[in-house]
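User: Sequence recovery, please. Input:
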């Protein structure tokens, strides 16, 4: 593990593996270098890219300087870009996709950006984010009710109650609680586009690089519609569907898509 200092002095932990052009991997909610999809994905990409797997602030080995702001997370990505040599590809999943897109929109030295299922809600095929969701989540974190915060999040995103109950007795539960406070951060990133309204036409008009917008073929209608809408409003976007995949996308499905997009390789 290495660390790089963000602009506000926060240490950001990362691992650098592989060889080739730099690619920064951006996790979604509750995930980090040691927990989530990226550890399985990285080995499948290491022959084609120099991968930067990092802990978003507040997770794993990274610091958590307060107060939080989305801009601080963008500065974290910029610090990694500078560590990578001054420019990089970037790939984000879920809320990490929204963060990666914002990095490109703010003019960071992103060469290409790939996004998988940014959790936007753009119509009535799924209820919008409840108005009291973030205030309740914030109260739970302030009271150190981390388990309640994780349950609150999972209920809102549609995880079955029985599965939530079972997860409380698995080793994963303590890992989820350890980063529960960062659910507030993820909500700040995505909440403006979880209101059940079409995405603004000019919101990401400053994204000047090729952009891949991907969705799972078995993902629900609300996610399909969100990614269709996103591909329409991002200037140089192309949309891709991964057959048979859901939000819990496999590494084997992601890797060929990313190699093709970032390096121009053909799919087998």
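Assistant: Recovered sequence (268 residues):
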């Amino acid at each position: 593990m290495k660390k790089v200092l963000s602009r506000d002095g926060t240490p950001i932990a990362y691992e650098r593996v592989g060889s080739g052009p730099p690619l920064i991997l951006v996790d979604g909610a509750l995930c980090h270098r040691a927990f989530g999809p990226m550890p399985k994905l990285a080995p499948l990409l290491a022959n084609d890219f120099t991968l930067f797997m990092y802990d978003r602030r507040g997770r794993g080995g990274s610091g958590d300087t307060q107060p939080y702001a989305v801009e601080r997370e963008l500065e974290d990505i910029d610090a990694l870009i500078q560590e990578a040599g001054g420019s990089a590809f970037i790939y984000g999943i879920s809320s990490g996709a929204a963060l990666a897109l914002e990095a490109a929109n703010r003019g960071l030295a992103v060469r290409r950006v790939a996004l998988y299922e940014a959790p936007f809600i753009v119509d009535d095929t799924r209820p919008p984010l409840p108005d009291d969701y973030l205030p309740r989540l914030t109260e739970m974190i302030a009271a150190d009710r981390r388990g309640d915060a994780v349950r609150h999040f999972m209920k809102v995103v549609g995880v079955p109650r029985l599965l939530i109950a079972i997860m409380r007795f698995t080793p994963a539960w303590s890992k989820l609680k350890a980063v529960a406070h960062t659910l507030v951060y993820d909500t700040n990133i995505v909440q403006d586009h979880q209101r059940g309204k079409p995405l603004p036409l000019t919101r990401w008009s400053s994204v000047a690089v090729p952009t891949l917008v991907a969705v799972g073929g078995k993902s629900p209608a609300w996610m399909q519609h969100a990614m269709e809408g996103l591909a329409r409003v991002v200037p140089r976007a192309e949309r891709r569907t991964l057959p048979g995949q859901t939000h819990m996308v496999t590494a084997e499905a992601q890797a060929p898509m990313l190699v093709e997009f970032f390096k121009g390789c053909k799919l087998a």
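Residues 70-83 form the longest helix (14 residues).
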